[in-house]
Each structure stands twice: as structure tokens, then as C-alpha cells.
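writing this on my phone so excuse typos. first protein, seq and then structure
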Amino acid sequence: MSESLHVCLNALLLSGAESYRSAGVHHYVAHLLRYLPGAGCRLTALLGPDSPAPGDGYTVRRARWPTARPAVRVAWEQIALPGAVRRTGVDLLHAPAFVAPLLTSIPTVVTIHDLSFLRFPHLFRPANRLYLSALTKASARRARRVIAVSSHAAEEAVRLLGVSRERVDVVYHGVDSDFRPLPPETVAAFRAQRQLPERFVLFVGTLEPRKNVVRLVEAFQRLSDDGLRLVLAGGRGWYDDAIFERVAALGMQERVIFPGYVPVEELPLWYNAATVFAYPSLYEGFGMPVTEAAACGTPVLTSNTSSLPEAAGDGAVLVDPTDVDALADGLHRLSTDASLREDMRRRGLAHARTLTWEQTAARTLSVYQRAVFGNGQDYGP
């Protein structure tokens, strides 16, 4: 039955640009494009004019508008996309990033990654907050099925969007096989090439308020280890001036490194080179960097809130992200206690092996089947 199912995946957010728009949702869409053909249904990918084409297994349709510009993309999705999808003759439209066209008669599946724009509205630019708040709620309520990327995200969708729990399926992200322990000589060569210190705490993510980077800087400042450095890797997002201002105010310019956006193909090397990976985000729908770092065998410090305990499993030190003392203590323990690092490494590797993109694709196909045919396995918490 699944072979006769024809699904259109809205991949307009797929981008090769080196910025925060290339993070998070971009990787989710890219991995769906890569692994869904093996799941067993007919697929059409809807792409922007300049987006990279997916591999085999897709019929490709491209928007004619310059959808790399957010305002144009939003307008195209709501105005032109319904007609474009109708002409493809698909059975289902998957909106993988919160919002589906509100005027289409084709059944939809919507993926909810997190609802930070409702939980922390003051951390978002007004226009982004208003757009996401209004259209995500409307899209989720109209959708046949809602995919939540964690049990926590599912609970949030029910509570904040008014979606019935029976229509929500939990489908975790996978971990790409590129994220694995690498040979020491490969890591050493990369460290030398990038002129990285021998020992450092690594953060990877968009530099924006929700990631809680200012508190991470303050916690790191309390460590007395002069040989340890803090590397804050990621594209600049919004309201990020406070990070640079805090580093300067604490006189930490020599101890904190800002390498900027890290291309995805380099990420395994960065994780492998780090002594500790720190991800003290205030709120996440899943937390892909946590599982990626764990899959590379890097000890992880992350938050005990939202979905991050799900992403970490038992392979990380969990702390209150609002408690600078707790962050500092966790960093100190992981950077000085070799037996703790080895335990977290072993547990993290075991947990990461349970998360694969092949499994994500298979479960996503099951959601498609339930949306169209009313069958398929129910994936809940």
C-alpha cells in the first residue's frame, strides 16, 4: 500500500548557505530527503530555485519565486504552494517546519520541532514570533497528523496548540553515521590545522538567547584551569551581542574562541577534538548536537529541562541551565575526572546507537500512512 502513496515534501528551507538557517531544521529536511526513498513511497520534493537537488528517488518541483528570502518564502507557501501541490497529484503534503499552507485541500502532516516562540516570546524578533505563533497553531489544528520530535514536544503541542494527543506521533531524529569516534591521528591533524588548543569545552549551535551561552561563559570563567579554552561554534542568530559583551566584560577574550559557523561535514572533527561538549540550552524540541557529540564519544554536559534528557539518555551530565554554579561544577567534573568522562563516553555511544535516520524515515512513512489510510504503527512516547 505504501508504494502507491504519493507524498510531497516541502523542502523550501533546504539551504546551503553558511548561517543559522543551515542548522536545525535544514538538517532534518536534508536527512528526510536522503532516507525517505528507502522507506517505500512515491516522493516529490518541493525546492527553492537555488536549493541543492536531492538524490535519486524524487520528482523535483521548484518554486519560481526567490524563496531564499524569508518573506517571499512565507508568501509563496501560502499563496502559490496550494496550486503547485495540487498539480502534482500527490496524496499528502508534509510541512517539515511548523507551517503548512492554510488554504490547501490536500491532507497535511506538520512537524513540530519546538514551541520556543510561545514559551519564550521575548527571545524572538516580533515579526518571527507573530508569524510562527499564528500559523503554527492553525497548521497543527488542520493537519491530519502532527509529528513531534520528542515526547516533550508532543506534550507542548497538546498543551499550547490545542492538538489532540491522538493525532500526535513522536518521531526522534536520527544520528548520521558520519558522527563516530575518529582515529587520534586524524583528530590531531585537524586540531593543528585549525590551531585549536589541546583541551577545550565545545559548544555548537546558533548564537541566540535560548541557547543560554551567556551563562555558559560565566560558568567557564569560574574554572581555574588555565589550559582549558571555551569554543563557541555557530552562526550568529539574533540578540547575540550580549554574548560578545559578556566575554569582553569578564576579560575572557584570550580564553574564548569564536570560529563562526561550522560546516556540517566538519562537525564530527570538532566533536572528536573537544574535551567536553556543553549544551546548556534553556529549551529544545530535541537537541541534535547532544546526540551527535555523544555518537563521537565526547562527554556531554547538558540541561535537565525540556527534551534534552531524552536526547541525552543516560549518557550525559544533566544540570539546571539557569544555575551558573551547577554549570561550573559540571564543567569542572567532566574536565578533571577521567573516570567520569570515560563513563559518559561509554553510555553516550550506546545511547546514540539507538537513534538512526533509517528508523526516523520508516516511522515518518508510518505517519504518512496513518494520515492518508488510517493505518500504520502508532509512535508515541
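second protein below, same order as before
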Amino acid sequence: MTPAGSHVVFIHGLWLHASSWAPWTELFQAAGYAPVAPGWPGDSGTVAETRSHPDQVAGKGIDDVVEHYAQIIGGLDAPPIVIGHSFGGLIVQRLLGQDLAAAGVAIDAAPVKGVLYLPPSALRVASIALRNPASRNKAVALTPEQFRYGFGNTLPAQESAELYQRWTVPSPGKPLFEAAAANLSRRSPAKVNTGNKTRGPLLLIAGGHDHTVPAAITRSTRKLYHKSPAITDLREFNDRGHSLTIDHGWREIADEVLNWLSQRVK
């Protein structure tokens, strides 16, 4: 029987392919973990295949993604650590709140229900889908310029362009619509059980120059957990943007996560 916390499930967010976690999975395997990085439902095995079949991801919502990863977790022999970026960070919090994971790390996580203030830069990124109601049930792709603003704003232009070409894929628009309406819906799929007293530890990570999920959103998310005695830690990297898991500085974030896990997950 594998000890709880030995498995690690990496969960990507919108517009990045699961293979963007490859450096992380290699590092975590070397550190003694058993990592996997499955794609969202409908994702193909490669960036090129996913770009070629955008309709396969269209219409998938937050509940679809949570159920997809819950099934993957159900096939493991022990509860895993779940690590997610952007909307993947919201999925992490759903899974942890449902006691499906031993611990969670949510990096620049999309806002959960209860986060009321969305800074203008976050609204600008979300508007890529929200400005067209038909995008709710379609796949939405970023242009290089949109990626530069939403992900690569702290990077040299060449690095942002290279990351765009290497990792970006079309993603479902539906999660953006669900998150935008979260505080208007009693049964929003963006609702997380922040009051769970027995869940595993959670680390929230924020990038101080993130346009897509500004640090103010992550701080607001942290406050929603105040009623739970379970561990909820916050780390901020003041000079980083939304690309912090895939750019030249990814190792700084990964090492912080490994250090936190060594302290919080025994």
C-alpha cells in the first residue's frame, strides 16, 4: 500500500497543455514522489493534437473537470497530493475540500465562490471568452498578444513567444462563465468547502505581477478559509506573473512547493 501523499497529481489550467508540467514531474520523481500529469477531459496527448481537435474540449465545465480528476484519484491506492495552476488551482481546492487528496497546492488559482473583488487585469483576461456569450460552449484559444498580457507580462518578449508556441492549447470557455457567475449562484461549481475542518494542508501561491489571477484574489481566497482550523498557508512571489510554473524561474516555485510538502505532509 502506497503511503498517502506519495502520489502527486498535477492539474493544469486553461490554455496550457498537461505536458507543460514535464519539468515538475521529473523533479518530483527525483525527489521520491510518484507524479502524474493527466490532461483535462477532451485533451489529446500532445499540444499539436489538442490544437487540431478543439471541439473535443468544448463545453467542459468545472464539475466535468473535478469528476475527471476524482476518477483518476480513485484509481490510485492512496490519496495523492494535488498541485494545480490557475483553474487547476480551483480544481485542487474542490478535490481537497471533498477529502479526496492528502494535501493541495494551488498556484495562482482562479477565484472560488466568495471572492468578490476581481481586479481590472483579471477581467480583461476573462473577457477573451466572456465578451462573446457563444464562447460558453466553445473552445477558446489565445493569440500571442493575449498570452503575453495574461501569462508572459514579466518575461522577455522572446521567452513569452516561445512558451506560447510550446505549450498553449484551446480550452473550454465554460469555466470562465461559471466563475464569473459564481457569486450569483447557490450551486456554483466554483464553490469550495472552505470550512472543512479535517482536510489536508493547503498551500496557496500568488504571483505579485500576475495579470490573470492578481495576488489580491489569492489573498481573498485565503481569508475564506478562516473558519477552518486546517492548515492554509500563503506564499507570494512578488516579481512573478502567471507563467511562473513554466517560465525560466519555474524551479524557484517548485523548490518552494517541495520544501513546504516536506514540512506539512509527513
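The chain has a mean pLDDT of 96. thats all i got for now
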